[in-house]
Write a structure and sequence with these properties.
heterodimer; A: Aldehyde Oxidoreductase, domain 4; seven-stranded mixed beta sheet; 31 strands; globular; B: Ubiquitin-like (UB roll); DNA polymerase, domain 1; 5 strands; binds FE2/S2 (inorganic) cluster
Chain lengths: 747, 155
Amino acid sequence: MSPVLGAALDRVDGRAKVTGAARYSGELNLPNLAHAVLVGARVPSGRIIGIDCRQASVADGVLTVLTHLDLPRVAARPKLFPSLFGLTAHGQSFFPMQDDVVHYAGQPVAMVVADTVERAEHAATLVQVNYAETPSVTLLDQGRDQTYEPAKIFGGLLPGRNPTRGDPEAGLRDAAVRLDVTYRFAANHQNPIEPSTTTAVWDDLDRLTLHDATQGPTATQLSVAELLGLPPTMVRVVSHYVGGSFGAKALIWAHPTLAALAARRVGRPVRLVLSREQMFHSCGHREEQEQRIGLGADRDGRLGALRHDKTSLTSHYDDWAETSLEAPAVMYAAATYAGGYRLARGNTITPTFTRGPGAATGMFALESAMDELAYEIGVDPLELRLRNHTDVDPSTGNPWSSKGLRECYQRGAELFGWSGRDPRPGARRDGDWLVGTGMASAAYPVAAPMNPQRARARMYADGSAVVEAGISEFGTGALTAMTQVAADGLGLPFDRVRFVGGTTDLPNIAAAVGSAGSGATSSAVHLASTGLRDQLVGQAVADARSPLHNADPAGIVVRDGRMCLRDSPQTGETYVELLRRNHMPDVEALGVWQPTPPDGGGHGMFTFGAQFAEVAVDADLGLVRVRRLVGVFAPGRVLNRRTAHSQLMGGMLWGLGQALLEATRMDPHTGRWANASLADYLVPVNADVPDITIDTIEVPDSVVNPLGVKGVGEIGIVGTSAAIANAVHHATGRRIRHLPITVEDLL
Amino acid sequence: MRIDCVVNGEPRRADDVWAGESLLHVLRERLGLPGAKNACEQGECGSCTVYLDGKPVCACLVPAGQARGREVVTVEGLGDGDLHPVQRAFIAAGAVQCGFCTPGLIVAVHDLLARTPSPAEEEIREALAGNLCRCTGYEKILTAVRLAAGREHES
Ligand code: FES
Ligand code: FES
């Protein structure tokens, strides 16, 4: 591998973003652009018994008002399905404005289209809707007596109950030490800074172009085509820059299709931007939930049994639970295991992916319980993790594709200064502040798409190359990292390669979700680039006029665009010489990666890490300040140190938010989120930022994908909140078993 | 109403502006300057920060009429053909991810360093308190400020 892989190079999209030149999906200058604004249901449950659009329809600038009475019926009922599979990827099995039923507050009941956005917003306030309201369930507590065990979750892809290992009831019964604790979690919203936005344009030939803020252009294309009853050939999606997502734009919700229907109705391009308030009930959220953990251990803390049960609130029509049990099930060498999901149906949109989906809550529960166990038996929390460390995937007995967790613990403990910690809670004081430290393990599954992942590389006769794949850039640094992968594969300098993504015209890549984006795209880009390199080397070897004629291709290396013999570098020629001599304007190769199957061909595939936190709690006011965070992760190969560390840091700050700030509160009387704004939904601000140290352990991994990339988007958040809560316990002696932890909890 | 103002050094005019329209809307929708972002329309995120007569404001909270006869500078007007040192620092420090908060932050940092060329840590945090970033974890943004202030050795 050349030094370009992993290097902390500047982002290729940096200039466009710092100058304001980058165009996001709602920033296109289109002639005759009209604007759609959605009207949301005011009640959480019931029927629409009357809807009066007369005033709205005659308001200045209004082009049309659509309701369930006149919106065209969609061609298919959407089916919830995760976008990782590369197929249609609807966020929920419900499409609004098809009938008079209200399932959740904020559900679109009307859509106003006008010539300016203000006029559309104004007219939207004039739409009068009358409801026959029925009783609603919007809190887990209200649905608790009617929970059920789903046969399947996750769009029907995962069982509602994890495979049981051994006899966990016996394991618990026979344990010397037992723990049975329940942890509760507030609902969370992703709140990317850019609200979801779609601009829909129909051309003269009835072809649709959608400029959509999405994690997966193809997912938008296939999903909208299905709802409109069009072949995918008639729908093109453009998504160059996306202003953050964190799961909000991972699945496809109603608004792109509504924008397309509005545009068709008014015969003009239509832009639909969700307001910040609408973002809270239009693209899913992390569901309110609780998780019960049962641990059985011997006196030394070796786990004999783990029970992990989750209960959460889902929508009326989908069995959704984020997969909180997945990572905890394989974290430690517990001899016996059982775990399952229970759901309560509620008046809510179907919940969805939120950063670190599943693991962010599941690992909080497990790692809090492990800390409780450590105190119960008087063993250092890190030592307890080491005693339960497992070199095989305990759910299958298979080896890991790679692990690196011991190294993460060790490096993290060094960076943090863990050793010599006085374990006594409440023992350390700094003026008015009680100071404590805590740690937690982190794990997140390495997923891959199911469908082949493709990229195309083309080199021109001047030796520059363009490499293409249909991804969007939503902040991860993918454009930069993929340029690096391509430069490495082709043997070209970084600045001779341009990576292009952002439309469904390009080779197909599945949506970048669950930290799988860099693995999937880098594999296809690597195969395309090395394929093209090999093709050119092969051509040189076959060319009687080449200095490399008849050389062994295996003995040829390429550096800076020059092919030469590894053992005698003076023998060789440049790509440019080869192409010019043969009068070739360009050459092209397609790279196709058939992803590793989910069982890793007999390997457990997870990313691991270790988190450490120091907090100070105001002894009188209960205020928590996180002073330091140290996170060390083993994400396989790191493609760009700078963008990777920046993502990990962002993830850890999300963990801080989850621990201390983030909660979407439901008002059960109105059935609406009570704090649906950035003023009231607290996210970390720069004053909250502690001293954060991040390190990565690069573990080689030849199983997950060709370059051994495990991804960094999720693992940063996992375990952070547990480390912080454990530190709060160490500081104060108070064990808080819910998130977020607030001042009131510590008064 | 008609609004005449100077934007990024050039006289600009917008006609038929509705009374309730914000400066942000006029910049983005009428003057073709989408650099300042629209993310909350409530003054809560700072994504829409621009200069109005030399003072940074949340353009989403400023009624367009207030810009009449005044001078507006947006992120598009900061570089002088080339990148401004603040813009360069954001790239070099890795302070940019999705970029949606970036234009507002660049204006806020530009203003901070114009007033206080060598700000203390507290001053940096104070000046950027109104700018939300959901991606970076802020630390690289603070590094960018130090870098632009010529104090990169402290980062
Ligand atoms: S858009 Fe103006 S502060 Fe958020
Ligand atoms: S870079 Fe995405 S919000 Fe700051």
